Amino acid sequence: MKLFFSRFWLTLAFLAVLMATSFSVVAVHAEAPSGPVYALQIDGLACPFCAFGIEKQLKKIEGVVSTSVDIKDGVVTVVMERDATLDEAAAKKAVEAAGFTLRGFERKEAGE
Amino acid sequence: MIRSLSVLTSGLWLMLVVASTAQAAPQTFNTALPVAQGEFVFRQQFFHLTAGDGELNPADRDVDVRGGVSVLGYGVNGNFVLFGVVPYLNKRLEITTPGGDRITRRTNGIGDARLFGRYTVYRDDARGRTFRIAPFGGVETPTGDNEDRDSLGVLPPTLQRGSGSWDPFGGVIVTYQKLAYQLDVATSYKINTEANEFEFGDEARLDASFQYRIWPRKIDSGVPGFLYAVIESNLIHRGNNAIGGLADHDSGGTTLYIAPGLQYVTKRWVVEGIVQLPAVQSLNGMALEDHFTVRAGFRINF
After folding, report:
1. pTM, entire model
2. Between the CA of residue A89 and those of A37, A104, B8, B132, what are the distances in Å?
3. Which of B54, B59, B219, B241 is most buried, taking the most CB atoms under 10 A from its CB?
């Protein structure tokens, strides 16, 4: 029983470290230089836990600086490096790899 | 000897694990939601189960099982996911012998691990909702000790942590998810095979889960955490166990569980808890009756 509870607290500590690490990763991305911004309409996205997989797949694309999800509208905003562009086919492939459907792809103009 | 011990503990092989989902979804069975390609989802669930006899059985069995179930899901691609499930079990049985002595027998350690795959064969996505159908299939492997012993000798098969057999299973899951709620329904069948002249009865299940978002009531921008109220049901039928090829008529039967719970889901992690209560138990002979099972745990994306 003692062993059971000590493992429980160890697990909680591990979770806390993991969450703290995820926040610092977000901060690093925010500091990177940014270029074009794209809005992707994702179909099938209906819970927070699934959003993580989409972001991870998109971040694997070369030139992606950061991503942010608006779950209510099903829109993922992708910020690219300066002088980089996001290829629609690559975005579609990434969204499919996450198990979802890319419905819309739009490059946003500055200030939009 | 094997037969007499088994009769004393018949029906002891309870619904211990099988909660093998690793997504934001039901807590007592799986879902059809995806795991992204090349990514892992880990789930740890702790549980406490109690069961016992009705008033008519002089053996007055009292069973207490505590433990954990670790699940790792890996996305092969957007449609295909591999799962590994490893239970850790701490099982205790108190029983009155025919001689009138009250004895306790126990075991603890790794149980039988499960390996299975799930493939999404149908997907209908729209803005803020998804509908998926995903068959799954795999095998329960004999990783748990099935020859554990105490000072009284070898434990009966139903008290062992493992069955000693390779048991295939399969089924299909249907999931409908919107931002406000999620509905999952699954049906499955597990074929238990013989080991050490003992064979657990096959198991058929029909599971359902409804999760309703109770907070936030209104979603603003970004990805807020969702708090769901959960109600699940599990209809489980088990066949008779067989000892040396002969059916044990004090084992198996049908049970309907109703399980209310809560679940808090964020982009990176999920915490959850649920209580499974047997609403209807139609059991064979003197098969053991469930009292309740409490489950609590977390899931993480990484």
Report:
1. 0.87
2. 16, 12, 64, 24
3. B241
